[in-house]
Amino acid sequence: MKLNVGDAIPDFLLYTTDKQPLTKKDITGKRTLFLFFPAAFTSTCTKELCSVRDDIATYNNMEVTVYGVSPDSVYSLIKYKAEQQLNFTLLSDYNKDVSAAFGTAYEIFNFNMKGTSKRSAFIVDENGIIQYAEVLDNAGEIPDFNAINAVLEKMVSG
User: Fold this and answer.
1) Number of H helices and number of E strands within the chain?
2) Helix segments in the chain, DSSP class H
3) Please, are residues 79 and 70 in contact by the beta-carbon 8 Å criterion?
4) Backbone angles phi, psi at 76, to 5 degrees
5) 26 near 41, Cβ under 8 Å?
6) Model confidence pLDDT, tens digit, residues 83-133
7) Which of 4, 32, 48, 147 could make a disulfide contact with 142, Cβ separation 3.0–4.6 Å?
8) CB–CB of 75/15 below 8 Å?
């Protein structure tokens, strides 16, 4: 079941590229942008995440914490983050539980991979409520960052 605008996000446990746990409680009280992506080291994922890297000042100025979430291992994500010089945290959903809970998992992706994250964007407000949800079935597309930024600007201006 896909989560939609107005839904509360589920409890979750993910590990960061700093090898630290991150839970719903850790983001409570903060504006958060979750960007689910299928796989590190692939062209579209790199294009998407590097565009966020290059525009991170926009998110910092709006006091939005950005997280990239993928089913890759913490170790793969550490290497990917370093290679791409990403200036935000990546989260490993290695067991694919969070992708499933957010409704952003392919039944079957390339090479018969099950449960891989669909490219998705979720804006979560300070109370854990989704303010923007975009789940893309085509892994070659990237989220609508104009729409994402418009929602964030509206949240900031109140």
Assistant:
1) 6, 7
2) 24-27, 43-54, 56-61, 74-84, 97-102, 145-157
3) no
4) -65, -40
5) no
6) 999 999 999 999 999 999 999 976 765 555 566 788 999 999 999 999 999
7) 48
8) no
